[in-house]
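Q: What changes when guanosine-5'-diphosphate is included in the input?
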Amino acid sequence: MQKKQKHTSALEEKNGIPAPEITDDSAISKVILNRKKQPSEQELIRGILDSNITALSRAITLVESKNPKHLEKANTIIKGCLPYANNSIRIGVTGVPGVGKSTFIEAIGKHLISLDKKIAVLAVDPSSTITKGSILGDKTRMADLVKESNAYIRPSASGDSLGGVARKTRETIILCEAAGFNTIIIETVGVGQSETTVHSMVDFFLLLKLSGAGDELQGIKRGIIEMADAIVINKADGDNVKRAKLAKVEFARALHLYPEKESSWSPPVSMCSALNNEGIEAVWKMITKYINITTKNNFFLKKRQEQNKFWLLQTIEEQLKFDFYNNKTIKTELQKQLKLIEENKTTPFAAAEDLLKLI
Ligand code: GDP
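A: The predicted holo structure follows.
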């Protein structure tokens, strides 16, 4: 029988919280790597804290599962990882398809790895809930970054709603942070509410833009500009440089019209060529500057606390809705009330009141 021995790792010292006690490393890795055998929650927690990528991936699969038993397991793992999370910079990257998000993330990702950072790339892709595809699903994307041992790329979870996907992404952030990834990049496309969702889970929100033919500001959702902590005009190379410079001036002027942010940070506009790896280092320097300023004036922490409050309420709402619509009595009564509405025998308001009284 294997002798139980206390495990020591760098993570154990972190935050002064001891890691769960478990059998030695080789035993853990064997269990985790043996696909047929389900590792226990404690084994997965231990694996994650030891930066074991297989353990991390298996735990994320549990988080993404719809099986209630898996969800229960996932919750235990998240709870176990939570004390080790939070030690990262979370960056959101948005922009229309084709703007160069994955090329940009690959470029900045490689730069970050050269600075000894560990990066995790996740995605919130509302279209994947319908098509079951995902913006990170295509394996040819970020081909170089995938090969880096200090990078972890996880395609977007599919789900029934943006809220569901968002929740899974947030939980995945916690697991990645506990596994030692100190820079989390979350990619999203400008569809529906996905930017707002990603904005509510990151420290820094970056909007990638293209320079157009003088109509840069048209067709762009006002809300996104307001949310952006920086606008970066990509593809500023070749014949495009001149237009990119014009776009830069125009966006800078537009940003000036917005009131000063609570963070006391004025969102800058810069240019880059993700393809040629130009201007990427400057973007990272800008993000670092933001982190420094907002850490000093306490906005960084305040924003995270606000985000946590928001997610608490959001999770309660989601859960209440789920419980309500999955309640057997409600399911039957809802059909009855819908029929009564059709027959003009009740109003939607009276029907809602009757249904809500049932719980
Ligand atoms: P995404 O859909 O936003 O993720 O965009 P991709 O990163 O897949 O890029 C879309 C296309 O634009 C690809 O063909 C890229 O090679 C190209 N591209 C990306 N960044 C640049 C850039 O900085 N300059 C140029 N010229 N092309 C780029």
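Observations recorded in class: The longest strand covers residues 89-95.
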